Amino acid sequence: VEVAGQLVSSGLRGTDTHGTVLVRRYIEGIGSGAINKAPKIRVLRQGSSTALIDGDFGAGQFVATKATQMAIGKARKTGIGAVSAIKVQHLGTLAYYAAIISSRRMAGILFTNSSAWGAPLGRAKRTFGTNPLCFVFPHKEFPLILDMATTAAAGMKIFLMSKEGATLPEGWAIDKEGRPTTDPNEAQEGILLPFGGHKGSGLMLMTELYSALLSGGMVSYKISPPDAQGGFYVQALDIGRFRKYRTYARDLDRLVETVKSGPLTEGYKEVLLPGELEARTAAERTRAGIPVDMETWDYFEILSSKYHISLPRLI
Amino acid sequence: VEVAGQLVSSGLRGTDTHGTVLVRRYIEGIGSGAINKAPKIRVLRQGSSTALIDGDFGAGQFVATKATQMAIGKARKTGIGAVSAIKVQHLGTLAYYAAIISSRRMAGILFTNSSAWGAPLGRAKRTFGTNPLCFVFPHKEFPLILDMATTAAAGMKIFLMSKEGATLPEGWAIDKEGRPTTDPNEAQEGILLPFGGHKGSGLMLMTELYSALLSGGMVSYKISPPDAQGGFYVQALDIGRFRKYRTYARDLDRLVETVKSGPLTEGYKEVLLPGELEARTAAERTRAGIPVDMETWDYFEILSSKYHISLPRLI
Q1: Do B49 and A180 touch (CB under 8 A)?
Q2: Secondary structure class of B128 (helix, strand, coil)
Q3: How far is A120 from chain B (nearest CA, A)?
Q4: Cβ neighbours of residue B280 under 8 Å, at least 6 residues apart?
Q5: Can you tell me the ipTM of this complex?
């Protein structure tokens, strides 16, 4: 149920790379045994504000939701809770877990690593994953979710651009010999560069340390399919421990109003907050439906006849 | 003592913008009363893993060191500690407090905001400070410290480049009308852009939320000199709560070795880790001394005769 919930959520928010297109991967993962259908999640270590759990290679959504709930529970008791999970399968977007945290009036920080495709600045060999990190703060209109790969582009984006025959912007990738490339096919064989120069490169490393080194999760360069994620780190911070939530919310409204008003930079139509575009897409798609690509739809038809599930109405 | 300790530490690490050059600002701040010589630090709220403190406008180094020590103490008891400080004066580099955390075998995350000079992408009005954030993990050779402004360049850098008559790289700043500029003088009147596009822009906002919104600290656009920092957030996480520190350290050694070896990208001589260059400079300067600019040295001579303090030997 967590898996389906997250795929729909990602699809609604417009993160099509992490939506319905993943159904096939997950069903085949269960078929091959890569995803453990009946995982026994074990708590390996636990303190009043921290825990380390073993996900037994269960569906990432199931394990990561559990870890997030534990972090929230600890934050309720002590003000902040931090939970790491190892042996976890593909868990989708971090934004999903971030939204659970913000719905509890808490702020969160999340990390995960994945099989190596990127590298820190200067190294011409796949070292780290696209290593996303995520920050979240609650806000009345939509949660302020910053969910970002620490590579210049997410892996699925390169894949889609290759399919379209598009050219990559400079600074996104190097080929396998360490030379700059704008060819998405060479990038698929090569290495993804961090975003934002040495700062993004440093964040890529920090994401690795939180995901794998802190917990003993698998480091990115040792992850190979069907394994997906080396480790997952989530922390929840109870805003009410610092000040009245109502006062926080009022001050945030004012801040958002300020950011949204006033003069714009040349070429901009508005100032967008983290998570704002996704919230708009979700509102639109809740009304109009989630677009599904033909290949995925064909797979849905196979599943439909195999398991006698009726398909949603086409629009 | 914390103040002097930090200035020397920053100077040793090569962060000259936050070293001896600040002595004058601090002494004058005490003279004018902007920095409270005898602050009464009060704990406003406290739980087992969190605290909010009022720094009474004492020297930032004093207040932030206190907050860092509290976070470490809480992390020792519960696994993680998070402390926010408001009413805090200029606190120098976050790297200084990060090093205290890593010396206790803990990982840390730190944020602070400052008077508005930057803005999120799209807004052509000063909104947020250079809003640095800092991550740290302990490592046997030197702490892995990523201490970075979320603007493309730190404010002092623009100031120094203006003095030198240098040209700014594109993407660092816009003028006060919101048009791109490479003139450091226009940038000083204008707005600093976030690093790394919308990702850096999002991190700039998150830094603001941790520094001011969580704690009720002053938001960047309300800070005006002589106030320096709106708020300070520090968290310490006890690595030993997740796995044996020895195992962490061994795995990190291997990771560092891997990152440092193997093929290099075109144009690179080595892969540098966060904090590595600063650690090298510190080793060099511990031997050879800290360079001091002439203006600062002249000020030292005035102080020397006024307070009968002998000056260090020139090299």
Answers
A1: no
A2: strand
A3: 7
A4: none
A5: 0.94
